Every structure is written in structure tokens, then in C-alpha cells.
Amino acid sequence: MNERLESIKDxxxxxxIKAKEQVDQYxxxxxxxxxxxNDLFEQFKTIPNDQKKDxxxxxxxxxxxAQEKLDEALLIFTESTNKSINNLVDFTLPxxxxxxxxxxxxxxxxxxxxxxxxxxxxxxxxxxxxEDDWHNFxxxxxxxxxxxxxxxxxxxxxEDIALRTHTSSVQVRLMEKQKPPIRAIMPGRVYRNEAVSAxxxxxxxxxxxxxxxxxxxxxxxxxxxxxxxxxxxGNDVNVRFRPSYFxxxxxxxxxxxxxxxxxxxxxxxxxxxxxxxxxxxxxxxxNVLKASNIDPEKYxxxxxxxxxERIAMLKFEVKDLRTYFNNDTRFLKQFESI
Length: 338
Ligand code: PHE
Hints:
alpha+beta, BirA Bifunctional Protein, domain 2, seven-stranded mixed β-sheet, two-stranded antiparallel ribbon, 19% strand, binds phenylalanine
């Protein structure tokens, strides 16, 4: 038995596998059911028990050796097969295009707006979407009976906690943390308890801006926003400010731009007024500064807030707000190259 083992080991070692066909030949000769090794395993059953340990060990080692040689050969010859297939590929053919995804249009508009304000020295700031009454309402001078504090308008989580209804809450957080001069731009998602339609949704996105320093005036507010509109929509767009009301600004205004579609002549998008409302703004109410421990005798500031969906709808002439949230790739793909 020992001699047979030595001779088969020798044969395995000397078998040269030089071509693909020989791999199978080798496997058949040594490792198949009818192969030489199996034959030895059959004989092994008949040897005396006291030799089993020694012979069994040798036999197993030879089988291992044979298997390793086969694995190695398979690796070499399968690889070279691939190589020959590769030779058939025409690398000069144009590649198939793959759709790699795009930035969401709202994200693109948001980034564009942020970039414009960054040029003016505004820094980026974020705040939480789940807010307490203080930051969303009280510190912003909302009276106790203001309709925004109503369940019909706001998603309350508990009596004191709600999903923020505007990014103005981030102003408060920043004013509490940082002393003037403050110049910041604060984008984020906001929530309102509204019926979903082509023009309204239960959540949307806003960008808030504040500028607080000594001697900041309404003229600074107007000039900043005028510059912003020209950068975003081009030089031939006009702006106008209409008096308005927000609890946290005094005086307050809404800013309109001349209609982008009809250039102010009147069309159904601007409801034949020639103007489109794009943001709310005003001088920060002294009560709001005081609530965040900023001295209103020394400092003044302006704030503004705008809806990103509204601006994106005007820019891309999108008529239904819901298309921004349906994740329909046919819609999203249109913004691929922007
Ligand atoms: N927070 C206001 C809104 O949601 C917008 C606004 C921000 C108005 C800052 C004035 C100043 O409508």
C-alpha cells in the first residue's frame, strides 16, 4: 500500500497540465469516481486496523495535493478563456449611457439662492424641524391668540412641541447663540396643516435670512433683496414692496417681482396683475431682539423668508407643486443638465 501511495503521489506531481483539455484528463485520472485515488480509498477499507492511522493520513494528504493542483489549473485556464473572450470585445464602440441620477430641482434652486447670499457674506445655518412653542411662536412675538397657534394651521406633537411652521424659528436659535453682527441664511423644511393641492402642501421648504448690526435700515433690506432678485432672475426684473404684517417684523412687507412670463403685461400666472409675490420681509421687531437678549437700542436688523417651491415653480414653469414630491423620474430627469 505504501508503495502504491508513493507512486501515485509521484504521478500527480509529474502530470503536466499544459492545456485546457488536460485539466479534465487530470481530473478523470485522479479525482473522478473511477479515478486512481478513489480506487485507493476502496482498498483502504481492507487494510489491517493498526495501519489505518498512518496510511489514512498519507492518503488524505495526497488527495489534498491532487485537489490543489486541479484548483490551480482551473484558475489558470478559466482566466485565459476569459482573456480570449475579451479579445473579441470592440473597445472602440461608444459606451452605453447610464442614468446616474440628478439633484432634485428644489435642491438646485436652494443651492443657487444660498450661493447668491454667500457672496454678500451671509453664512449658512440650520435648525431643528421639531420645535418648541418658544422658538416657533413666543420669541417671535406671536400673540397668544394668533391663528397660526391653532391646530388647524399647525401640526402639534404636544401642547408645547410642534413641527416648525416656518424657518423663522432658526433666527431665534441663532440670535440666542450669537451676538451681532449676525448675517445668516437658513434653509429648511417647514410644515403646515393644509389640504394638499396643486398650490399647497402639508410641508414645503423655506429660506430665511437675517442681518443684524448697528444702523441696519430698511434701505439695506431693499438693496440686498434687489441684488438677490437680479442675480437669480436677471437684470430686467422689477421689484416692488407692499406693506404687510408679521408679528416678528415692524415695518413688514411683501416683495413682488414683475411677472417672468408676461414681463408685467398681465397673464394667468400673475392673475393679470403683472406681479408675482415671492417673499415676506421686514425690520426685526424690537421685542424679538429683546427676547433673545439683543439690545434693540444698539442694534437693528432685517429678516426675510421665502418659499423655495414657489420660486422653483416660477423658474421652471411647473404648474403643480405635487410633482416635486411624487418622485416620478420622468419629471426629475428633466433637470438632469441644470
Ligand atoms: N416666516 C414668514 C412666513 O413663513 C416669512 C418671513 C420671514 C417674513 C422673515 C418676514 C421676515 O411666511
